[in-house]
Amino acid sequence: MPLEERRRKRRQGLQRGVVILPSAFTLANLFFGVYAIVAASRGDFIWAGWFIVFAAILDMLDGRIARFTRTGSNFGAELDSLVDAISFGVAPGYIIYQLHFHDSAWGWVISFLYITAVVTRLARFNVEQGGEAKRHFHGLPSPTAGMILATLHPFTETALFQTHLTGFEGPQAIGVLVVLLAALMLSHVPYPLVPKIGLGTVRGIFVLVLLAGCAVGALAWPRHFIFPFLLLYTGVGLIRSVGLGLLERLPDRDPLLDEGEDEGGAEVRSLDYRELFERPASGNPSESMGDEDPEKESRARKGPTHKDPTMESEKEK
User: Fold this and answer.
1) Domains detected in the chain
2) 160 confidence band (pLDDT: 50, 70, 90)
3) DSSP at 221
4) Neighbours of 228 (CB within 10 A)
5) How many CB atoms lie within 10 A of CB 91?
6) How far is the C-alpha of 169 from the C-alpha of 181, rounded, in Å?
């Protein structure tokens, strides 16, 4: 076999391996989501919660690997959504049902509402943002909501919770939390992505230090850190959105146009809010803008002027 032919086949094999890599991470995400259900059915709710955290880490990595290797595809996006529906919808819903609602005849409805919100949120995400958010998420991401429910039980086992927060463990409080998470997933509250790390700017170095601190906290004190941190992330996004709404801070671009600021050639649709505050004085909407020429309007009312052919012929002479 010629040398060029062998090199071409080797490159093709390498390319197929790179394409399979993001899907392998996605299927590993599915493995941990399913095993979380198995662990919860055996009564091991602590490890069931950690398995969902592992699934969320893999869910974050598969998208980054697909972008880094330029192997993203519609198949990968659809597979990711189906897997997320299980790992961050069915699995947390089953865990929360077994822990707090299995004694109630209608307690399963709470889990059903949560799973419905996750599935609807994933379908909307694929339609609105093409399966990939570049600037922020529209609504609470389903992995965040799933990890909040999954790490709630490990947090309730800590001495901090047992000493100061035991009143928040009842089915009523848990039900309010589940319904609130479902509503936030279906909302358009903007939640930022994990910021990019860079050593060239002060902001990039600050982000690196912040992420390193979060990683140390999650590894050193997982039961004390993960659930409060995720709850803080959820609350800050909601409070910020409500605050901007009360201050009437209108966005300067279409909120559904989710293109990064550093991506050249992105279509930017300008928004004009004048129509919200200015109403026409009469039936003609252009009169309220005040940019029409009065002489032009008078000529339009008089109609077109007709030239006399005899006068034209005299001028030519």
Assistant:
1) 3-195 (1.20.120.1760)
2) confident
3) S
4) 14
5) 29
6) 16
